[in-house]
Structure formats: structure tokens, C-alpha cells
Amino acid sequence: MGHLDHAAYGRLTPALSHAMASVGAALGLRCTVRALATTGAARRNRLLTAASALGTGIWTMHFVATLGSHVTGTEIRHDVPLMTLLGLVAAVVVVGAGVLAVGYGQGRGSALAVGGLTTGLGVAGMHHLGMAALRLHGSVSHDAAAVALSVAVAAATAALWAALHTRTPAAVAVASLVVGAAVSSMHNTGMAAVAVRVVPSDRALPGATAMRFVFPLAVGLGSYLFLTAAFVALSPTAAGPAGAPSGPAATPAAAAR
Predict the structure, then answer these.
(1) What would the pLDDT profile of 69-105 be if each residue is shown by its tens digit?
(2) Do 30 and 47 form a contact (C-beta atoms < 8 A)?
(3) What integer pLDDT is reported at residue 143 of this predicted model?
(4) What is the pLDDT of residues 43-64, one digit of tens each?
(5) Which residues face 245 on adjacent strands?
(6) What's the confidence (pLDDT) of residue 97?
(7) How far is CA 200 from its chain centroid?
(8) For 248, phi and psi rounded to 5 degrees?
């Protein structure tokens, strides 16, 4: 059996993957905080933006960390459609389901449980999609998939809990680092459960090398994060013109005037 080294470039890819997860979490949590203070279309739009930021951050974390993988005795290629398009869509959709469950749930406890389970299952599924996108000379198996799944559910629940309980920018910053660490731990747990059976071969592998991903990823991700950050920064806050809250709590007061 071969060993899959998921830190072939030292601490570079783990550090970058944690940073990407934390940035996505920070943007997602900030959007969620503002969404919970609004109603109607504003809440929906901010929750969808939060889902896209969180989902993209989680997917990018896995994407960057996987690019640092190495197996002795074989080259590694990546199936681009499976790893990029399908993996990204899956991440955003399942995180969106969890965020919407929290944003519109009547009971916070039940909404958190449903959202955490749904998102955790989706994140674990996205991880397996990424592993299925690996192309190498041999086969890949998972020895402890259940462990990775449990960590994924815990990480997703932590992210959604933070979305419900953080309010200030400082709290969001701290929570985003915790969420980034939780999601990265899920990935590392899943990677530690991977076993590779190498079958030496001279056959050319299909797919793209890791370095071919770097430039498109940097440009695409940089553009997305810039636009999301601009949306969060420029969108109106929960306070009205006179400093009064504009969410549901402001409705009775406004009606009394």
C-alpha cells in the first residue's frame, strides 16, 4: 500500500487552505449576521451570498490542500470537471441548504441540527468527490470514512452555530478562524483515512497537473472574494437612517410612530 502525503510542499498548502476556509467563513458569517437582521428579499439575498462565500471557502480549502498531495511511485492528475465544477456546485448547494435552514428556521436548536447534518453530509460528499477526481497509477480507498463524516458534521454545525451567535466584527473574525480550523481538520482527517495501492505503469494519466490549476484558481477566486467583500462592505447595515434597527424588531416601533 502506498502513502498519500497531503503536505508535499510542507506547511504551505495546509496554511493556504486554512486561510481560504477562514476568509470564506468570515464573509459568509458577516453576510449571515446582516441577513438575520433583515426580512424579505434582503434576507434571502444575503443568505444566498453567505452560502456562496462559505461553500466557496470550503471547496477552495479542499482544492488547495489536495493540490499539495503526493504519492510515492506514481504521478497525480486531477479530473477538472469532477473536481472543479461538480465539487464547487455541491459545496455551495449543501452549504446553502444549511444556511437557509438556520436563516428561516423557527426553532434555533432544530434548525441548527438539521442544517449541521445536511451541510456536514454535503461537505463529506464534496470531499469524496475531490478524492474521486484523483487520477493515479493504482487505486484509492478510505479506511475511516465514518470518522471524516462525523468531523464534517461537527465542522458544519460549528459554522452554523457561529452564524447564529456572532454579531460584532471581532467575534466574526475569531469565529471564522475557528470554523476554518474545523473545516481543515475535517479535510486532514479524511486524508489520513486514505490508502493508496500503487500499480506501476508507463501509461499516461488523464487530467491536469496541480500547477495548471493555480493561475485560473488565483484569478477566479480573487475576483470572487473581491466582489463578495464589496457586497458585504457596501450593502446597508441593519441600522436605519436614524440608527434604529431595521429588522423584525423595528417593525412595532416603526408602526407606533
Answers:
(1) 778 888 888 887 776 778 888 888 888 888 888 888 7
(2) no
(3) 65
(4) 998 899 888 888 888 888 887 8
(5) 239
(6) 87
(7) 35
(8) -60, -30
Between CA 39 and CA 48 the distance in angstroms is 13
Tens of pLDDT, residues 111-157:
788 888 877 777 777 777 777 788 888 887 776 555 566 667 777 78
Residues β-bridged to residue 2: 196
Q: Which 3 state secondary structure label does DSSP give 79?
A: coil
Give the H/E segment covering residue 194.
strand 194-198
Instruction: Quote the cell numbers at residue 67.
Output: 493540490
What domain range includes position 185?
4-256
Bridge partners of 71, per DSSP, are 4, 74
For residue 167, how many other CB atoms are within 10 A of its CB? 12
Q: Are 24 and 54 in contact (CB under 8 A)?
A: yes
- Residue type at 60? T
Residue 23 C-alpha cell reads as 476568509
Q: Report the domain count for the chain.
A: 1
The phi, psi pair for 255, rounded to 5°, reads: -70, -25
Half-sphere exposure of 115 (CA within 13 A, CB side): 28
Cell of 74: 506514481
What pairing do the DSSP bridges indicate for beta strands 4-5 and 70-71? antiparallel
H-type alpha helices, the chain: 12-35, 40-67, 80, 87-104, 108-132, 145-165, 169-192, 211-234, 250-256
How do residues 148-159 score in pLDDT, each as one tens digit? 666 677 777 877
- Helical packing angle, 87-104 and 12-35, nearest 10°: 40
Distance of CA 104 to the CA centre of its chain: 20
Q: CA triplet 117, 118, 120: central angle to 5 degrees?
A: 65
Assigned C-alpha cell, 233: 462592505
